[in-house]
Design a protein that fits this description.
The structure holds two protein chains of two kinds. By secondary structure, chain A is α+β, with helices and mostly antiparallel strands. Chain A is 34% helix and 35% strand. The chains are: A alpha+beta, B alpha+beta.
Chain lengths: 148, 80
């Protein structure tokens, strides 16, 4: 079961993960990651912008790559756009497989690519103004681990 | 008809607008001349990509946008 989405409103990751698990009968394991806006002092909101002609298509290509690379039964990949408050989910990736390694690695792979190789731009609102956020060197290094 | 140039992420702030029109056809030199020196400087950065008509160009200097095409200027991304 494959479910790749962009959402412009708050969502409940646990409900998505529950129905994703139910949609993959016979699975051996599910690995899920949920990213949330950190409740840092001084950060009042995060805004994710995207580019309609590329962003969802790019996530579909990332899902294709995950299915090619790992032994998966299903993949759920949901990413928020718009303004998001502290504590709200930004991203949810869940992978179902017969064996744990495929599921765990697929989630890790998808998250590393969503962080620094998907068509999103992120800025945070602090008390003074909005500030754009670039990926950290660690984000690029994490993604490079998957280069063959 | 013309070419629409779309400024994504932080480039929108540098350009001071989300999009603008330019005369078609538009090539790389024309793009650099159209967007102003500050955006042009950033466009020369290898980490900034250019898409034309919904496709990311593997060589942005080969840009040749025609009437009705949308040209997107894509700075380094940050998701998750």
């Amino acid at each position: 079961m494959r479910d790749i989405r962009l959402l412009d409103a708050p969502f409940d990751p646990s409900a998505l993960i529950r129905s994703f698990g139910a949609a993959n009968p016979g699975l051996g394991g599910v690995c899920s990651f949920v990213g949330e806006v950190r409740g840092e002092q001084d950060v009042t909101a995060l805004e994710l912008s995207h580019y309609e002609p590329l962003t969802l298509a790019g996530m579909e290509q990332l899902a294709d790559a995950a299915f090619d690379r790992f032994d998966l039964m299903g993949l759920l990949m949901v990413h928020r756009i718009g303004v998001i408050g502290p504590g709200e989910p930004i991203v949810c990736v869940s992978a179902a497989a017969l064996h744990r390694r495929g599921a765990i690695d697929a989630v890790d792979f998808c998250m590393d690519h969503l962080k620094s190789a998907a068509w999103f731009w992120k800025r945070e609102q602090r008390s003074d103004a909005w500030h754009w956020i670039e990926p950290r060197a660690d984000d690029y290094a994490d993604r490079s681990r998957w280069e063959k | 008809m013309a070419v629409t140039i779309v400024f994504l992420g932080p480039l929108r702030d540098v350009a001071g607008t989300a999009s603008r029109e330019a005369a078609a056809p538009l090539d790389w030199a024309g793009l650099l001349a159209t967007v102003g020196p500050e955006v042009a400087d950033q466009l020369r950065d290898d980490r900034v990509n250019v898409a034309c008509a919904g496709r990311v160009l593997s060589d942005k200097q080969s840009l040749r946008a025609m009437d009705g095409d949308e040209v997107a200027l894509l700075p380094p991304v940050s998701g998750g």
